[in-house]
Amino acid sequence: YSYIAGDITAAYDPQKVDRVTRSMLTINTGDSDFPALFFVFDRILSDRTEYKKTWLLHSIQEPEITGNVFSISRTGPDYKAEGIYNGKLVCRTILPKNASITKVGGTGREFWVEASQTNYFVEKDNPASEPGAWRIEVSPANAQEDDLFFHAMAVTQADNKRICDFEPFDAGTYKAVKTNKYLVMFNSVAKGATDVQFTLDEDLRGVFVNGLCPGNWKILRNGSLAMKRKVTDSAQCTYFEGLESGAYHLTKIN
């Protein structure tokens, strides 16, 4: 897996935003149908409640939206005319709950900016240029200063008929999602955790937990010591491979 996290507040207007953090996780599954899973967890604290927050995902082809799940396909001849694109990204909005999910784009609105009511169209300057033409917009249903955005994505073939299920649930301060025999858990509070509990009703290929205080940890399964782990200050996360079903309790020792 690959994981990166950081404070990206400086990328936004300081008169509107107090803090923005982002965590991103990629898991290479080895599954030919869904070879890669991608997760993005954002925490945004605005200066005022009325400032609308919108999460964006840009695409070349038109997205399809069904409830809180949307997909983006990439089909047709490639830019070299040497092959055929056959890819698809499937994404579920885990948070915000009851989010507003819309699509913007198409002819005359490829790079539409709502504030100026202007479309900044991009001309192709060479065959390899593949400018987008659409975007997904995700916004909370209710206005508030502090919002969480959590998106789970899977990469697959455009003609794949197999369904990728995303099963979200809460585990204390953690927001979690289970998909394709993997469990991913993001801490919803800024303060690092010293105690984490979750229960697996089936064996999983991998479990990822972020937002942990650095130090030595013990992991209990059904009340018995299963293993120990060291969480570094730079990572503040841990990953388990091949966890069996059971009740797990992670505790920081020192």
Shape: globular
- Tally of alpha and pi helices: 0
Structural class based on helices, strands and sheet pairing: mainly beta
Oligomeric state as shown? single chain
Main sheet properties:
7 strands, antiparallel
Radius of gyration: 20 Å
H/E order of the elements?
EEEEEEEEEEEEEEEEEEEEE
Question: Approximately how much helix is present in the residues?
Answer: under 10%
Share of residues in strands:
over 45%
Distance between the termini: 26 Å
What are the segments in which pLDDT stays under 50 over at least 5 consecutive residues?
Answer: none
Task: Record the strand order, biggest sheet.
Answer: 1-2-3-12-7-6-5
Rounded mean pLDDT score? 94
Number of E strands: 21
What does this molecule look like?
There is one protein chain. By secondary structure, the protein is an all-beta fold. The chain has no helices and 21 strands. A 7-stranded antiparallel sheet has the order 1-2-3-12-7-6-5, with no helix packed on it. A hairpin with a 7-residue loop joins strand 2 and strand 3. It starts with a strand and ends with a strand.
